What we know:
Layout: E1 7-10, H1 14-27, E2 37-42, H2 49-56, E3 65-70, H3 77-89, E4 103-109, E5 113-114, E6 117-118, H4 122-125, H5 128-136, E7 139-141, H6 148-161, H7 167-176, H8 181-194, H9 203-208, H10 215-224, H11 231-241, H12 244-267, H13 275-288, H14 290-308, H15 314-329
Parallel strand pairs: 1-4, 1-7, 2-3, 3-4
Antiparallel strand pairs: 5-6
Helix pairs in contact: 3-5, 6-7, 6-8, 10-11, 11-15, 12-13, 12-14, 14-15
Amino acid sequence: MSRPAFTICICPDSRLLRQKLDTLLALHSPGQDGGWRRTVFWGDEGLGASFWQDLTLRTLFALPKALVLRKAESLPAEVFEKQLSPALLACLGQKGQATNTLTWPIICLENEFDRERPKVPAHIQRLPFYRKAEELGLMDVSPPLSGKRISDYIKSEAARLGIKLENREIFVLGESLPPDASLISMEMEKLALSRDAGGKPAKEALAQAGDGQSPNNFEMLRLLQRQGKSLEVWKRILKDRVTGKNQVFAFLALLLREARILRQCLKGPEPTLRDADLRQKKHVAQKLGEARIASLWDIALRADKGIKSGERDVDQAMDLLAADLFNLFK
Length: 330
């Protein structure tokens, strides 16, 4: 199968992106022993001479090489406009096929999505190479895990690892685990270690799934739910333990998981938790009541929207989040 001259991969989840790259490289195999030699470059480290040499030089005895540029959105706009875009256009033959069959540039854009749509920087979207990629179908877009895609990913990982799960167990895991493919895969691998001869994981392992992926955050939620702490202490706890956008979004996903569990404690079905954790969650749920538990969704969405819209930076969003949580739990 002929391969594209270059490919733009858009995916904010690093594990999903790696899986997509594996699929693409296998689909367009060069037909030589060892397949594509994958060389990875990083946009936030700049592009040295070796990248441009691999991209532009052609030799008779060269081996098939995939040039994977991760986090390409971190490159300066000037590099995109004056160097990368012209070099990629030079790779284009007729109908988007490659002029150099031994070199395959793969440009990875890893910005977060907004309402199921990729947020590609405007200075990249208006460049000729990007418009040509749209026109010729040289783009591969993989949205992050959310909703049904989380359950589908759990099913695929269960099949890969030989784990037998019931639909209810898949639902509970989908509600419990954060929307991060790496963390989900890690938890599924733990379940695989506990499975019996028929592939069923131990009930205790299922109940604990998710608790190991971010112990500091779970402990932080327990700390924040206790009375007697000032707002400044809450702010310090959050800022000490949650830094950077990725960690903030992971914490917000954890906060929504907590909201679902607390609501289940009040309205059912009873969540699958260890006995001690279930007693503690029921106590907090009864103390808060249904209306205040529901407000956790508003609190998380306000922080999420503030960061993604640019209305607030991470520190400002965390200050507001701490204030909202303090008022809720005090």
